[in-house]
Hints:
Blueprint: H1 10-23, H2 25-50, H3 53-56, H4 73-109, H5 116-125, H6 127-147, H7 149-158, H8 162-169, H9 174-184, H10 188-219, H11 226-264, H12 268-275
Helix pairs in contact: 1-10, 1-11, 2-4, 2-5, 2-11, 4-5, 4-6, 4-11, 6-7, 6-8, 8-9, 10-11
Amino acid sequence: MSVDLRPLSVGEILDIAIKLFFRNAWTLFKIVLVVAVPLQIFSIIVTLSTIPEALETDASLFDPTVQPAPIEMDEFWTFMAGTLLVAVVSYLVVTLASGACFKAVTDAYLGHKPDARSSLRFATRKLGTLLWVSFLTTLLAGIGLLFCILPGVWLWASWAIAIPAALSEDLRGTKAMSRSFDLVKRRFWPVFGTLIVGMILAAVVGSVIPTILQLLVFVTPAGENVIFATTITGVANLISQVLTTPFQAAMITIIYFDLRVRMEGFDLQLLAERVGVPLPPGAFAPAPGFAPPAYPAAFPPPGFPPAAFPPPPGFPPPPGFPPPPVYPPPPAFPSSAAFPPAPGLPQAPPPWKPIGPGAPPPPPPPPP
Length: 368
């Protein structure tokens, strides 16, 4: 995809994000699958290992008219601990997948072919920064949303591009959040509108197939089996992550680029160097027919003798350097008396009279 660094409208941002998603779908899918498949397997094993025994055969899970069976407190807390463990591991894995997708989308947007391995390696090196920025933005926006909805929504939109800023500009923690806040505050409503429309699209696309799979749990006899139900839930979550994570990363990355183009002119070469992306061929090619001037490797130019300047006093010439040539002084110019008058030209009398013995003195010169 060619580099298109110019201010974009909301529709253009979503259009470019969708095109990046489809043109690099297999690479983005591999990034998510590499980290999400082990997560879902781990999640299924932990859930089946910690689920209370009463729930394994409890018909109330599938029939709301049946009274639920009692659960022992020890089994309940074991199940809660397993659920918390799965949530923590999911947070780590999803953050890693999102960071790798950000890197791959950045590569694609800058005209370079994205690679799943290099993107995952890049995100792994930045995992600490990704986790910390994601944790701070989620926690503070959640607190704002808990006490009052509007501050939480405002903080969520203001910090939406904190992760791209952290990855592209090598920022950490609150510096990445401040950077995101400074870029978004001048165009809050367009950014907020783009995020809302993009999240709605992602939710619709990411819920179609998982919803169909979840229906199998409730409309088929096999759904009463806890192992089958847990496995179907894990597969549904996997499909949802594969479809939504790359698209959301693409959308937020394009928003970040658009804000930098608008606010700062966005230096492509600088950003490419920061994220480790080689520039695309011809990104900064000279104009057709233009050739830089060829300068000689050494001075003076060929055909010109070296200047004969003596070295400063006290500074001997460098080894191997021949001494400057000694030029003879120019011949003396003869005086005008040595030149005879031109033939046939009368001599003008001198403007004075010679003073001989007894002659009166000459008159004084006239006053000025």
